[in-house]
Amino acid sequence: MLPKTHFTALFEAQVIVMALSGMTVTAIAHLVHETDTRIWRLLGKAVTEARDAADYSDVVRVGIDDTAKRRNQSYISIMANLDGQRAVAVTQGRDKGALGRL
Description:
The chain is of the alpha+beta class. Helices cover 43% and strands 21% of the residues.
């Protein structure tokens, strides 16, 4: 699945499924007897690979909104495909810089 890794494709897929199910990286690392740093690295590579392979050619209309990540008012901005109901991009902040990063 991911290049230059000592994990098997099945192990990587299992970790990704656990992360997608809502498990924390710390819990995943404990369960599979790995460091959280290695799990973060694996997930980071998987996200990069997925973003590189994503096809946005069918996106015609987008909507942009922001929301608080947590109660401490740490915001994220989200760009979504209005026709496909799918997030296209997510970035930290809700200022002009956030729009540029989307």
